[in-house]
Specification:
This protein has 93 residues and is mainly alpha-helical. The chain is built from four helices and no strands.
Length: 93
């Protein structure tokens, strides 16, 4: 149970830090930012905005997204999931 709580804290920290990056790049109000919001369609983000988000997340979490992630990740929830996987892999290496 302690491990599940630790993972939950980690996930909430990832989400909080990822939100900061998204809010710094995208034209979206924090109150409107939902985990399932399509960050491209619902914010009007262009390809440059998307790249800025990914670069910001890479810098924030000291990770590197695989190239296909740029096309596949469209929501905060998806980003948090992938960041968790990539960060865990980095810690194990």
């Amino acid at each position: 149970m302690a491990q599940a709580r630790s993972q939950q804290v980690e996930r909430s920290e990832i989400e909080s830090r990822a939100k900061r990056v998204l809010l710094s790049v995208l034209d979206v109000d924090e109150a409107a930012l939902r985990p399932d919001m399509n960050l491209v369609e619902e914010t009007g983000a262009d390809s440059l905005d998307v790249m800025e988000v990914f670069l910001g997340l890479e810098e924030e979490f000291d990770i590197e997204f695989p190239p296909e992630a740029v096309e596949q990740v469209r929501t905060l929830e998806q980003a948090v999931e992938l960041i968790g996987v990539l960060a865990a892999g980095r810690q194990e290496a």
